[in-house]
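Please, why this fold?
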Amino acid sequence: MIVITAPTGNIGRHLLSLLLESAPAHGEELRVIVRDPARLPAAVRERVEVVAGSHGDAAVLDRAFDGADAVFWLVPPDSSKTPDDAYLGFTRPAANALVVHGVGHVVGVSALGRGTPVAGRAGLVTASLAMDDLIAGTGVAYRALANPSFFENLLEEADSIREKGVFSDTVDADRKAPLVAVADIAAVAAGLLLDRSWSGSDSVPVLGPRDLSPNDLARIMTEQLGRPVRYERQALDDLRTTLVGYGLDKTFADGVVDMKRAKDDGLDAGVARTPQAASPTTFEHWAAQTLKPAVLS
């Protein structure tokens, strides 16, 4: 039995689709935890066991982890809380339930940065790495998917790209860093969940095929969209003001700013790209298949 948290999110929906295709051949049953089961397609609900509720709720986890062999763990960041409460506080009930129910394997969504000089002051990433330590400390076999920023973050810029030909971030325009498609993260997670021959605790970097700078992204988007796109760097203080204005907890907003600062200081540069870590989806392909329809709609 494989339990999937956040099955309607960006990564979870891709993972669930992959497991629905492959799990029967491996003799695996699937169980999902979802706040609103109606968000799952009816055809999916017919093929999985559904536990309704939040995976931050101990009672929900007690039902969901009963008889489970493996768990896919993803914390939905809660901007109304501090980073520690959003990651560690949310995960503590799961850590207890893993032990109580003797779950053997967990695959979690985390971040790059462990072992870098800035890891201890990287805001949300620091909290995510502490979450990994909490899960690993339960004694389960654990694999933390160490991810950089997602291609999909740019979908939040679709209106600005459409209306102004501009996207923004806070890093230097020429700072090259890994970037990844969420579908590739899901594929790595599916492989680990279906072949549980691994043990112990470790990180699995998912780095995309090559490092790209904001200027590289602007050039590729210009080519793929057929219209000029440029990068505009935002000051960290301006980002903090914007986030707090949106109603985020001030400590959580500081966590986002600290993460952004750490990324500009090389947070994501601590892992060498190997054939195993280089996921396949190129930014060119993603921009053509996903960003272009969103911008031109």
Q: What stands out?
A: The mean pLDDT is 96. The two ends are 40 Å apart (CA to CA). Residues 2-150+179-208+266-279 form a domain with the Rossmann fold fold (CATH 3.40.50.720). Residues 83-100 form the longest helix (18 residues).
